[in-house]
């Protein structure tokens, strides 16, 4: 898929699997690959995207809902896999990777024309990363699987044209839901996941004239709903020019062209 600007589409988002497709010019990148290789291929094909056109995979952290299909896709399509050394050390499920490329949070790198800026986030993983991707004058900010929003996170995400942000749970649904208490504490803790209210506050702080789209991601199917998440975060937008979207767990989302 050749484009002179960014194209972004969530292939899957949620506890059962996460993968975000980003392309521009001659580069097509998967951010995480937390479904089976066959399922990721199927979802790409639904979008009329040839898996052979992929050029790289970036892994944000080692949890299975982010790496399940990464190893097999890397081997099948001879894709370089970008990952931090600590995350790789905790990712035995990847298997043998022929083209392994390490990155460190805080140090930018390039995948063809795309500048990738990884930054540290707070989550119960070895070395979890948020990302910004920049191409020409366009910027995508990605932050999911984090328990708190630090100044570092906000500094990296500012001036984005598109934000892909966690909006994991409705606090009331979480507290009154079926999960055991220790899991509820983990989810709403500093190393857990952002709530709808957290996402609303973050969007309100990052809203600028440059921001055109917000995609809410990693929604819990048990402790949230697309309607609740969108309703809460929309309060920070005030019917502005910003498009609000919700990533889906079981099918690809809308392909957004910046």
Describe the structure.
The structure is a single chain. With 258 residues, the chain is α/β, with parallel strands linked by helices. 26% of the residues lie in helices and 25% in strands. The chain has helices at residues 37-46, 64-67, 70-77, 85-89, 151-157, 171-176, 181-188, 196-206, 226-234; strands at residues 7-12, 19-24, 27-31, 56-58, 81-83, 100-102, 109-111, 114-120, 129-135, 138-143, 162-166, 213-217, 243-246, 256-257. It has a seven-stranded mixed β-sheet with strand order 6-5-4-3-2-1-14. A seven-stranded mixed β-sheet has the order 7-8-9-10-11-12-13. Helix 8 (196-206) packs parallel to helix 9 (226-234). The protein is globular, with a radius of gyration of 17 Å.
Summed up:
The chain has 258 residues and is an alpha/beta fold.
Please describe the topology of this protein.
Blueprint: E1 7-12, E2 19-24, E3 27-31, H1 37-46, E4 56-58, H2 64-67, H3 70-77, E5 81-83, H4 85-89, E6 100-102, E7 109-111, E8 114-120, E9 129-135, E10 138-143, H5 151-157, E11 162-166, H6 171-176, H7 181-188, H8 196-206, E12 213-217, H9 226-234, E13 243-246, E14 256-257
Parallel strand pairs: 3-4, 4-5, 5-6, 10-11, 11-12, 12-13
Antiparallel strand pairs: 1-2, 1-14, 2-3, 7-8, 8-9, 9-10
Task: Describe this protein with a few key phrases.
single chain, 258 residues, alpha/beta, Metallo-beta-lactamase, Chain A, 7-stranded mixed β-sheet, 14 strands, 26% helix, globular
């Amino acid at each position: 898929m050749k484009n002179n600007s960014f194209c972004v589409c969530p292939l899957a988002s949620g506890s059962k699997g996460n993968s975000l497709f980003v392309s521009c010019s001659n580069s097509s990148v998967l951010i995480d690959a937390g479904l089976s290789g066959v399922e990721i291929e199927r979802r790409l094909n639904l979008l009329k995207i040839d898996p052979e056109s992929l050029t790289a995979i970036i892994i944000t952290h080692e949890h299975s809902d982010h790496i399940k299909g990464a190893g097999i896709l890397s081997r099948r399509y001879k894709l370089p896999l970008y990952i931090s050394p600590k995350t790789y050390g905790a990712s035995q499920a990847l298997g043998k990777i022929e083209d392994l490329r390490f990155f460190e949070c805080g140090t930018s790198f390039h995948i063809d024309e795309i500048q990738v800026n990884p930054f540290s986030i707070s989550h119960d993983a070895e070395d979890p990363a948020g990302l910004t991707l920049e191409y020409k004058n366009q910027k995508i900010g990605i932050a999911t699987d984090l328990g708190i929003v630090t100044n570092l996170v906000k500094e990296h995400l500012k001036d984005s044209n598109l934000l892909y942000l966690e909006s994991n749970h409705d606090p009331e649904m979480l507290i009154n839901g079926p999960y055991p208490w220790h899991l509820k504490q983990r989810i709403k803790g500093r190393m857990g996941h952002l709530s709808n209210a957290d996402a609303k506050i973050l969007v309100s702080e990052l809203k600028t004239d440059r921001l055109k789209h917000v995609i809410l991601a990693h929604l819990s199917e048990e402790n949230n709903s697309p309607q609740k998440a969108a309703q809460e975060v929309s309060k920070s937008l005030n019917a502005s020019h910003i498009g609000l979207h919700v990533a889906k767990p079981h099918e690809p989302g809308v392909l957004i062209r910046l």
